[in-house]
Amino acid sequence: MNDLAAGVFKPALSEQDINAGFVPLLGDLATVPADYLSEVAQTKRGLERWVSDANFRAAYEDDPVAALAGAKIDLIPDQMTPLIQREAALRLNEAINAGETDTYPTSVLRYRAFIREKIRHRREHRLDNQPRHPRMAKWWRRQVYRLAGQLGSQKADRIVHAPAAFELSKGCSVHCWFCALRAEHLKANWEYGPETSRQWREILTLMQELLGPALRQGFCYWATEPLDNPDYERFLGDFHAVLGGCPQTTTARPTADIERTRRLLRLTYGYGVNIDRFSILSLGVFNRVHEAFSAEELLRVELLPQNPDADERHKKALVGRAQDHAQQRARELNAESASSTTACLSGFLLNMVEHRVELITPCPASARWPLGFWVIDAATFSSPADLDAIMRRMIAEHMPSDLPLLEPVRLRPDLRVRVIDDTSLKLQSRLTLTISSQPCARQLADLLANGDCSPAEIAERREQEADVPQAETLYLLQDLFDKGIFDEEPRPAAE
Ligand code: SF4
To answer: pTM for the full model?
Structure first.
């Protein structure tokens, strides 16, 4: 049975869209009618030109027909304008909601169905990242809740919280000026060979026992460029052989060796990857990508416009090395993102060259966490078995299932407590949580805000002063803990 037949793809088009005649594109493309595929691919290509090329945008404003012809985009303005101009896009939304889309080209509607499929896929498969180990699963869910409260649901929705990532190099050859992870220069690669392959497979097997199928959502880069490692594809092969899935790839070197990139896309498609990504660092790279790869080849490849010509919506996060260029390159940076994050991992980050493992989770970037993630623990390992022991120790030490009864609990520093009335209060950050049916809400608010009381003390005081049974208060506190309300930020070493 080949990989496609094994059903590793996960199409996510809604039943409503399927009934309306749309075709899933996050799946086996062999069954998609050629004209359908071509329309969506060409539309995607036109939009990529729009977001990446300032000259094209200016030319389109002047004369859309000439601009499209000049850029060799096989579309007419009616196929582009509803997808790029705000008012036209709003009218399109209304038409789709009302089911009155007869006047729109099929290419526009099919492209929008593809976008709906991708968004639905991301939402539906978010929980695929949840680790299997019960303590780690609870910890993982707390980090998802916490970050949503700290960033707001819209930004947090984009962060998948993968449970593991593997660096197959030390450093990165690309050295982007905006690198949010401040990747150092490339120093070494983890070379593939019989011994490393054996270790790699053993590590994946051991980690699968801890993380379960979620490990398939891991990826083989972090502060590294995957294609720096000449053996990247062989490591992917082992990953697929052990786990039956394949990591998504993001490369900033799509044109360094075009045939290698083409082979990689075929390989990952064969392994059931839905989306790979090219990071576009210059208009020159963008043009070479469009010249070298057909629109159809790029259908499932997202181009991330990181070039100076990119449109307003694609400014870069002001995190990591980008902060060194805050003034000189202000036009390309999103000033409001200084306390944001681009990190997308809540779990184990491994560097295979150094045999190092860190337990990390995203947080708003700050003076203490300038790269936008907490490093909760770190260690080096001498063997797969040693790594297994270290990860289990980290889970035991840093991922309590239950709120410790006798240790002081404090709210996350970003939360504010607001008493609404005698029996209800709100915990407010970017998201608000309402606690209701609590007699003497003011007392509860004060105890929560205090930061020096243990759950046992809070429960006792609630019983004495508000006549609330201790078990009820402990249940409430555990529920708040599970929702990431209490501060779990690693204490500074001196504390
Ligand atoms: S952004 Fe990616 S490609 Fe660029 S330096 Fe950082 S790790 Fe390397």
So the answer is: 0.93
The C-alpha atoms of residue 339 and residue 16 are separated, in whole angstroms, by: 39
Mapped onto helix, strand or coil, the DSSP state of residue 297 is coil
- The domain spans of the chain are 15-123, 131-252+306-398, 416-482
pLDDT, tens digit, 9 for 90 and up, residues 257-268: 999 999 999 999
pLDDT value of residue 3: 34
Rounded to the nearest integer, the mean pLDDT of the chain is 93
Q: Is the CB of 343 under 6 A from ligand 1?
A: no
pLDDT computed for residue 494 by the predictor? 61
Nearest to 221 by CA among 244, 252, 262, 187: 252
Gap from CA of 234 to ligand 1 centroid (Å): 22
Counting from 1 in the atom list of ligand 1, the atom nearest the Cα of 175 is 5
Residue by residue, DSSP assigns 319-380 as -GGGGGGTTTTGGGEEGGGGG-----EEEEEEETTTTEEEEEEE----SSSTTSEEEEEEEE
Q: Cβ(322) to ligand 1 under 6 A?
A: no
Residue the block writes with tokens 């960033």: 151
Using CA atoms, how far apart are residues 369 and 461, in angstroms rounded to an integer? 36
Ligand 1, pocket-test mutation among 168, 169, 170, 176, most atoms within 8 A of CB? 176
The dihedral sign for the CA sequence 358, 359, 364, 369: negative
Mutation test residue for ligand 1: of 174, 307, 316, the one with most atoms within 8 Å of CB: 174
Q: What is the DSSP letter of 177?
A: T
pLDDT of residue 34 exceeding 50: yes
Domain 416-482 of CATH type 3.90.930.60: yes
Of 23, 42, 41, which Cα lies nearest the Cα of 32? Answer: 23
